[in-house]
């Protein structure tokens, strides 16, 4: 049987059983001491097994982009989050503390929901869509009463 995996062709005969190889690789992996090159998904990596591995760690500060908004993250020496700030070039720049209470998050979430709802109400009024306005008013009552 001819098998092809990622461009490599293999000949395999399932009727041929060799008990000396059962459950083990055909050849043991060589212990390489000389530097070698690996290629994975088009990227080339150079490996030198004689050089001791260094422990990688998270960077202390870095920028993230989510849905077009840029956030700057700062961590302390132990890797704990100390500050998360939205970039100044974003339209709504606010610093978010790592120790925000659940109540404050809930209030901010409700304010964001109401702001979004207000924008949708204005759009429905401009189009004169009364059925959508009725639905949005019901949604506003749900948000403000917490149900």
From TrEMBL:
Q: Which Pfam families match?
A: DUF4278
Kindly give the InterPro entries that the UniProt entry links to this protein: DUF4278
Domain of life where this protein originates: Bacteria
Question: What's the name of the protein?
Answer: DUF4278 domain-containing protein
């Amino acid at each position: 049987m001819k098998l092809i995996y990622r461009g490599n062709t293999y000949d395999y005969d399932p009727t041929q059983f060799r008990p000396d190889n059962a459950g083990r690789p055909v050849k043991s992996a060589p212990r390489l001491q000389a530097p070698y090159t690996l290629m994975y998904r088009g990227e080339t990596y150079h490996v030198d097994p004689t050089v001791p591995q260094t422990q990688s760690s998270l960077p202390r500060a870095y920028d993230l982009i989510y849905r077009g908004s840029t956030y700057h993250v700062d961590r302390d020496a132990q890797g704990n989050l100390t500050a998360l700030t939205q970039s100044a070039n974003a339209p709504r720049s606010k610093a978010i503390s790592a120790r925000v209470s659940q109540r404050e998050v809930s209030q901010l979430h409700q304010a964001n929901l109401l702001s979004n709802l207000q924008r949708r109400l204005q759009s429905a009024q401009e189009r004169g869509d009364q059925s959508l306005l009725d639905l949005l008013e019901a949604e506003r009552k749900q948000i403000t009463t917490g149900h």
